[in-house]
Amino acid sequence: GGMETAHRPLRGGVSRRPASLSVVIIPALLVVLLLFGRAEGQKSKMRVLACERGYEPFVVADKGKGITGFEVDMFMAIFELLQLEVLRSRDSDLIDFVGQEPPDIIPVPPGNGTWDEMIHWAAGPEGRGDILFCGYYLQAYRARWVDFSMPTMSSGYTMVVSAAKKPIDGLTLLASTVQTPEPQAAFAILLLLIMSVIYAHIIWAVERHANVTIREWYGPGVFDAWWLGFVTATTVGYGDKAPVTYLGRIVTVIWMLAGMYSVGLFSASLTTGLVADNLAEDAGFKSDISGHSDMIGKRLGSYFALADPAAKAVEPGVSDVKIFPSQTQVYDALLNGEIDIIVDDKMGAEFFTSNAPYKGNVTLAGPLWSQEDYAYIVMRPNGTEHPLLPHLYRANLDFFRGNQRDKAREIIETWFEVPEDVHSADNVLQSSLAQLNTVFAVVLAVFASAWVLSAWKHHREVEKKIKERDSLMVALECTSRYDRYQAKKGAAKLFDEWDKDHDELLDLEEIVSALKTHGFANTKGLDTLVLKEAAKSGIMIPKNSKDFRCNQHQFQTLMSRVMTEGFEAEAVATLDEPAQKTQVMAVLDEFRQKGDVLDYKINRIEWMLRGGPTNDAVPKPHEWGQEPIEMYKVTRSRTFRG
After folding, report:
1. Do strands 131-133 and 300-302 pair parallel, antiparallel, or not at all (unpaired)?
2. Contact residues for 364 (Cβ-Cβ < 8 A; gap 6+)
3. Using H for helix, E for strand and C for coil, what is the string for 132-162?
4. H/E segment holding residue 61
5. What is the Cα Rg of the chain in Å?
């Protein structure tokens, strides 16, 4: 414990003090430096260099902000950790050399050539710098001249190609979905068809005698069952056909599960990756560059000399890489068509593809190769290790792995965060879909508005017709429910009220005027509607509508039709089969005839009860099949006695 430490001179001209003296002096010196040194703001004597032309994003030359970038921001964050490391060394000369305030960044003029030439210039006999930033790869041959910090970033070589996107219209977007299906999709649809045919035969055999929607003949019946199976499997389910037997329903449940599987498999196989890939090709995002061998025969370019041996190492057959003076010049050459591929560093390429003016115009292509590590240069004063090198190592390690790693992550994300939509056709797809979705939304909005307006108008028409029907029922004294007999009796009463000239006939003007007083005032074309209903009732319509006349019997038939047959006709119109329509119309006609016969018999009986056979004053009712002279008004209070 009492041994003295040998006195060893510090490389670069800075000497060390014996450890025995530092036991007392260093603590006091630390307190003084921490309390008073910072207040004085002593500038660091370190000479930190950076390439003036910049190497984005590691060194960025900004006229407004000076020299910034990832390595510059990283060093400024590490500087405080470096101060603590130097203070722990208890070396006052080294502490004075580092100083209390960060050093200024000294630009290396662009006239100093390539990266290696800048190293020789900075580490020359004059000793122009201590640290050099310019996005250097940690290369073994450079270690003959200088030292490196610990690696700050891992990267490698990649290819950058033009991605000038073309606009995609709606037809192209739709056409991109209609392509040759994948084998899995073809298998799924064939499986669905085969299973549907098997299901159709089973259902036809089970349902043909019990289900009226499944015809008994083999051909039509199997087709009916196949239709049922297909709409069930695709979850359409029109409802026009359905199994009615227990066995048929059990088989259909099994078929539902199998059908959903087949349809789902078909949909997934058909659409997975298809639209995006096709759109990428249509928009120019899907490049023909996918591997290293695709560089053969292409014009290559870069802005650093190491790109040429790196490209030839991974693919010996490539042509020489044309070296451009700067990053922007090589990227402009790619956009101008002067070269086909840029051989670039991955981190630099991601930075350029993520920021204007190249964002969206260039994209990465192919795999990463020849992984490399970034580090900054630490000079060797007088050909020996720089005294700051071990302290820089520890400061870097503490920054990236210690308590400052959150700060390190923040700086990395500031300069290297890449948007997710830079390197694929998703951006074009989303943009095209957004435009097409807008068109679809407008069309749907117009359709929905028209549908709502139509539904509202239809609702008003329905309400109007209901009110008209209710008013007519009141006029016919059918206040509770419709009754054919009551309707005809009420029509006879209305006939007498509306026949103003008492000529036993109603003309068109009298009927229209009377209907308007009974809830039909707002009905458009009422005279035309009356004529149409009269024609349907079997009343002869003259060429001149003003000559239209109807007697009481015809008027009763007309009112009866308006009250009932209009609604009956709407119900009949919903039937699909012509034979069913004919049958229903025949039944309705039969009911009409029976009703007319019943009316004739009632009038005949009434005439007899009034003494018609022996009393000529009682008018005789018409004979069946002839036009009546006068219809009898029968009241509900009439009774028959035996």
Report:
1. unpaired
2. 158, 159, 160, 346, 349, 350, 353, 423
3. EECCCECCCHHHHCCEECCCCEEEEEEEEEE
4. strand 60-62
5. 49
Rounded to whole angstroms, the Cα distance separating 114 from 117 reads: 5
Please report how many Cα atoms fall inside a 13 Å half-sphere around the Cα of residue 444, on the Cβ side: 6
Element (H, E) at 226: helix 218-233
How many CB atoms within 10 Å of residue 514? Answer: 18
Rounded to whole angstroms, the Cα distance separating 206 from 329 reads 78
Amino acid at the residue 176: S
Q: How far is CA 264 from CA 5, 164, 174, 272, 528, in A?
A: 80, 36, 21, 12, 56
- Paired strand residues for 301: 322, 342
The Cβ of residue 324 has, within 10 Å, a number of other Cβ atoms equal to: 20
Longest dimension (CA), the chain: 163
d(CA 528, CA 511): 12
* Higher pLDDT pick, 552 / 185: 552
Of residues 33 and 535, more confidence is placed in 535
Q: Which residue shows structure tokens 């599987």?
A: 261
The residues, any chain, with a CB within 8 Å of residue 491's CB and separated by 6 or more, are: 476, 552, 555, 556, 558, 559, 560
The vertex-401 CA angle with 395 and 403, nearest 5°, equals: 80
Q: Could you tell me the two tokens for 232?
A: 């069930």
Q: Which residues contact 391 (CB under 8 A, 6 or more apart)?
A: 82, 85, 86, 89, 94
Residue among 6, 114, 48, 81 nearest 386 (CA)? 48
| pLDDT score of 202 more than 90 | yes
For 118-143, the pLDDT digits (tens) are 888 888 777 788 999 988 888 888 88
Peptide bond between residue 57 and the one before it cis (omega within 30 degrees of 0): yes
In the chain, the amino acid numbered 612 is: G
Measured CA to CA, the distance from residue 71 to residue 134 in angstroms comes to 8
Packing angle of the helix pair 484-498, 508-516 (nearest 10 deg) = 110
Chain position carrying tokens 């037997």:
245
Q: Is the pLDDT of residue 429 over 90?
A: no
Q: Report the alpha-carbon distance of residue 637 to residue 620 in Å, rounded.
A: 22
Can you give the pLDDT at residue 182?
Answer: 60
Closest-CA residue to 92 (of 387, 417, 489, 468): 387
CB neighbours of residue 261 within 10 Å? 15
pLDDT in tens, 343-400: 998 888 888 888 878 887 888 888 888 888 889 899 998 888 999 999 999 998 888 8
What mean pLDDT do residues 443-470 have? Answer: 73
Residue recorded with tokens 């009409």: 592
Length of the chain: 642
Convert 332-366 into a string of H (helix), E (strand) and C (coil): HHHHCCCCCEEEEEHHHHHHHHHCCCCECCEEEEE
